């Protein structure tokens, strides 16, 4: 006949049955903790690699932009130091020789086409246009101030990027200015400044478009700091900020430093 187990035997049996279950649960928790730790380390490494990649792209873009702008300044310095250009402008201002004017226009067109300038024009120190080639360049207050600064410093000065309103919309431009020098001392130097206009939009759009780093949400933003605010100079991929119209306060936490 069956014999009822003693109470102590039943408790010991239950304890033996729970031991493997407990060990299994503990092992499962240890595996889960190890897996989470591995995931956390890998996620941190992925974030660091992504940050390093974006930083490298940003540095490369900055170098490209700086080199491009320097390439626009170089021909301006060459034109300013050219013995022919400065002396020819001085002689033309003195006697208005039409043949010399034609030669000057050829020289300005050669500078314009060789460097993909939208315009190359000569202004007097008060900002009045004397002659030039390419698109029309209005002698607005910003350009007049830049011309005056270039004449005073003898260096290549620029208006910084700004927008012009055209019939087809707004256009981003930069105007460079440098005082002309003669080839035989100060007496041969005319009171004139050469101005070259650049349309940087095409180049900058290509640079920013290539700055995604391969990430779906990656983006290179073109901004300018104006006081305690950032001004968009280009059109971002996301959202609807307007170039030269949308500003963000520097105090916003989500802005990169």
In short:
With 257 residues, this protein is of the alpha+beta class.
Task: Report on this structure.
The chain has 257 residues and is an alpha+beta fold. The chain is 49% helix and 19% strand. It has 5 helices and 9 strands, in the order H-H-H-E-E-H-E-E-E-E-H-E-E-E. It has helices at 7-81, 83-95, 98-114, 141-153, 201-209; strands spanning 119-124, 129-134, 157-158, 162-166, 169-179, 192-198, 223-226, 229-232, 247-249. The strands form 2 sheets. Strands 1, 2, 3, 4, 5 and 6 form a 6-stranded antiparallel sheet that branches. It has a 3-stranded antiparallel sheet with strand order 7-8-9, with no helix packed on it. A hairpin with a 2-residue loop joins strand 7 and strand 8 (229-232). Helix 2 (83-95) runs antiparallel to helix 3. Residues 183-187 have low confidence and may be disordered.
Blueprint (SSEs and pairs):
Blueprint: H1 7-81, H2 83-95, H3 98-114, E1 119-124, E2 129-134, H4 141-153, E3 157-158, E4 162-166, E5 169-179, E6 192-198, H5 201-209, E7 223-226, E8 229-232, E9 247-249
Antiparallel strand pairs: 1-2, 1-6, 3-5, 4-5, 5-6, 7-8, 8-9
Helix pairs in contact: 2-3
Distance between the terminal alpha carbons, to the nearest Å?
86 Å
Main sheet specs: 6 strands, antiparallel
Radius of gyration, CA atoms, in whole angstroms:
34 Å
**Outline:** rod-shaped
Runs in which pLDDT lies below 50 for 5 or more consecutive residues are 183-187
Average pLDDT reading: 76
Fraction in helix: 40-55%
Number of strands: 9
Strand fraction equals 15-25%
The helix tally amounts to 5
The oligomeric state is single chain
SSE string? HHHEEHEEEEHEEE
Structural class: alpha+beta
């Amino acid at each position: 006949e069956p014999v009822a187990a003693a109470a102590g035997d039943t408790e010991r049996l239950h304890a033996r049955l729970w031991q493997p279950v407990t060990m299994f649960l503990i092992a499962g928790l240890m595996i889960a903790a190890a897996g989470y730790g591995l995931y956390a380390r890998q996620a941190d490494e992925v974030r660091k690699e992504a940050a390093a990649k974006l930083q490298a792209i940003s540095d490369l873009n900055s170098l490209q932009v700086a080199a491009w702008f320097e390439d626009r300044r170089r021909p301006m310095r060459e034109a300013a130091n050219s013995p022919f250009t400065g002396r020819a402008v001085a002689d033309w201002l003195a006697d208005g020789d039409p043949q010399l004017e034609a030669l000057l226009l050829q020289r300005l067109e050669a500078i314009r086409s060789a460097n993909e300038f939208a315009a190359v024009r000569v202004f007097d120190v008060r900002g009045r246009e004397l002659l030039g080639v390419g698109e029309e360049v209005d002698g607005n207050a910003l350009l007049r101030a830049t011309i005056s600064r270039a004449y005073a410093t003898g260096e290549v000065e620029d208006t910084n990027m700004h927008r012009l309103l055209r019939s087809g919309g707004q256009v981003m431009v930069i105007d460079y200015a440098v005082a002309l020098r003669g080839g035989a001392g100060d007496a041969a130097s005319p009171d004139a400044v050469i101005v070259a206009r650049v349309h940087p939009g095409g180049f900058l759009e290509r640079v920013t478009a290539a700055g995604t780093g391969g990430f779906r949400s990656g983006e290179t933003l073109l901004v300018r700091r104006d006081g305690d605010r950032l001004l968009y100079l280009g059109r971002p991929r996301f959202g609807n900020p307007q170039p030269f119209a949308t500003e963000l306060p520097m105090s916003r936490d989500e802005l990169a430093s």
